[in-house]
Amino acid sequence: MAPRFDLVTIDSPDTDALALFWAAALELHEVEREDGSRWIVLADGDGTRRLGIQRGVARPGSIHLDLSCAPGDFDAELRRLVDLGATQLLEPRREPYGTIVNLADPDGNPFDLCAYG
């Protein structure tokens, strides 16, 4: 089963300020925070995760997609995406929320594959 679209993530050097802005602009609320303010997730009223704010360099085009899959599908999905033309940028790593790997599409646009749980 193919991964599903999960989040749009915005890179920012000031994640707290940007999260406050987007929370107010889109009437979202914080549902997840990792490593102080390295990673913040905003959700809508029913708890659906909508926007990720990640510490990084803010630049035009610094929004990237997060795809998610079941933990048991992670390795197969990573291989499938690479076979389709994605470039694996870093080795997969475990985070408190699950496993993540950073990838780039054939044009070099970054995206992440995440397996929560």
Structure description:
Strands 1, 2, 3, 4, 5, 6, 7, 8 and 9 form a 9-stranded mixed β-sheet that branches. The model has no long low-confidence stretch (mean pLDDT 90). The longest helix has 12 residues, at 15-26. The two termini are 17 Å apart. A hairpin with a 5-residue loop joins strand 3 and strand 4. The chain has helices spanning 15-26, 74-83; strands at 4-12, 29-34, 39-43, 49-55, 63-69, 87-88, 93-95, 98-104, 110-116. It is built from 2 helices and 9 strands. It is an alpha+beta fold.
What order do the helices and strands come in, and which of them pair?
Layout: E1 4-12, H1 15-26, E2 29-34, E3 39-43, E4 49-55, E5 63-69, H2 74-83, E6 87-88, E7 93-95, E8 98-104, E9 110-116
Parallel strand pairs: 1-4, 5-9
Antiparallel strand pairs: 1-5, 2-3, 3-4, 6-8, 7-8, 8-9
